[in-house]
Known about the structure:
Blueprint: E1 3-10, E2 15-19, E3 22-35, E4 38-49, H1 50-56, E5 65-77, E6 80-92
Parallel strand pairs: 4-6
Antiparallel strand pairs: 1-3, 1-5, 2-3, 3-4, 5-6
Amino acid sequence: MIFATVTGNLGKDAALRKAGQEQVCSFGVASETKVKGEKVTTWVDCSIWGKRGEALCQYLTKGSKVTVVGELGTRVHDGKTYLTVRVSEIAMQGGGAKASGGGEGKSSGGGYDDQDYGRGKDANGDDLPF
């Protein structure tokens, strides 16, 4: 098993679907790097399975910045190979396009404890259902 950590922004709202007897929350993360001075975007298809995915899906909206950790894999569709991550850990970084509270999302250092991430708190310090 190979595990990967990916940080980036969601390209669109996460989608919840049923796969067999379980729910799965699927979303794409765009990670940007520079290669020889040019911006390169790598897309990673992510999935969170079960009740945790079902609970988190509503919070994973287009533009949200996240860091995911999970099992790295690939899938082939129409002759193209896609990177995948089956998420075991997720941290919502805040500053997303649809941050709660009606105003702009908070960015790093915006008055909350960074250690809350991954421990059931969002950027506003509100409890998350995981």
